[in-house]
TrEMBL record:
Segments traversing the membrane: 6-27, 47-70, 76-93, 105-123
Name of the protein in its database record: Uncharacterized protein
Naturally occurring in which organism (per UniProt): Fervidobacterium gondwanense DSM 13020
Record key words, sorted: Membrane, Transmembrane, Transmembrane helix
Length: 124
């Protein structure tokens, strides 16, 4: 039963990760800037790295509890994508400005992989 809670926690963390980008875009294009966005964006920015680490760790534990080993599964593909995103963060200074574009695009790829994993976990 613990694997279910870890799976839900991982999904919430992924949405939390994507919310930083979404709220920044929303704030950027709003004609009148609400004051509540400034502390919200600061909180999301400060928590982004830590919640990313938590997503990778909790996602791995979730997968190991269910499968008991590493095997080809939609969850492992999703987890591997999250791991690639985290590794890309570690090398952001070497890649330069292209890094953020790749990082954001990969975020939406992870969202699609989450949908596939949730609705069709054993499709592979």
């Amino acid at each position: 039963m613990l694997f279910r809670y870890l799976g839900i926690t991982s999904a919430i963390l992924l949405f939390f990760q994507l919310s930083l980008f979404l709220f920044r875009r929303l704030y950027k294009y709003l004609p009148k800037k609400p004051k509540v966005f400034i502390p919200l964006l600061k909180f999301l920015k400060n928590a982004h790295t830590y919640t990313g680490i938590a997503l990778v760790v909790i996602g791995f534990i979730h997968g190991m509890l269910i499968l008991g080993r590493i095997q080809l599964h939609t969850g492992w593909i999703l987890w591997f994508g999250a791991l690639i995103m985290f590794i890309s963060f570690l090398f952001k200074n070497r890649v330069g400005k292209k890094w953020i574009v790749i990082h954001r695009a990969m975020g939406f790829v992870l969202l699609m992989l989450l949908a596939i994993h949730y609705f069709f976990p054993w499709i592979l």
